[in-house]
Amino acid sequence: PVLRLLEAQLQDQRREHEEEMEALKNQVDLMQEELEKQQQAFLQSLQLSPEVQVELGLQQEITRLTNENLDLKELLEKLEKNEKKLKKQLKIYMKKVQDFEASQPMVPVERRPHERTMQVAVQRKEKDFQGMLEYYKEDEPLLIRNLIT
């Protein structure tokens, strides 16, 4: 139950992050389109020679791309910070889950009411080998800890 709650919280945060990213992308696209329209109107309003128009267009494009790159770098840094924060939170939550599971009283296998042992499919790079991993419920925290590390 605790692990599922933590997974749900992490998925909610991820979904919010993706929605925020999409909104920012849309905003950047709209701003880019508006800037291009303004540039076109400006170039048309000036009756300059084709060479001057090309040079002016290139300068504006260089400026636009430079600004866009700076914005993208800033966004990337923000996303990397958020990723690090989420990874730290995940480690903390996993530690809490392990501590919680380790603190649960050990119940002998015979006494457990209809509790099934989780089976994990293990597939290796060589396609010839496939198998199942079977373990006791009380060994689950140790198995999870080993899988994570």
* Helix content bin: over 70%
Straight-line N-to-C gap: 22 Å
Low-pLDDT windows of residues: 122-130
Global Rg: 28 Å
Q: What is the residue-averaged pLDDT?
A: 81
If you had to describe this structure to a student in words, what would you say it looks like?
The structure is a single chain. With 149 residues, the protein is mainly alpha-helical. It has a domain at 1-47. Helices cover 72% and strands 5% of the residues. The protein contains three helices and two strands, in the order ααββα. The protein has helices at residues 2-45, 50-103, 140-148; strands at 120-123, 130-133. A two-stranded antiparallel sheet has the order 1-2. Helix 1 (2-45) packs antiparallel against helix 2 (50-103). The radius of gyration is 28 Å and the shape is rod-shaped.
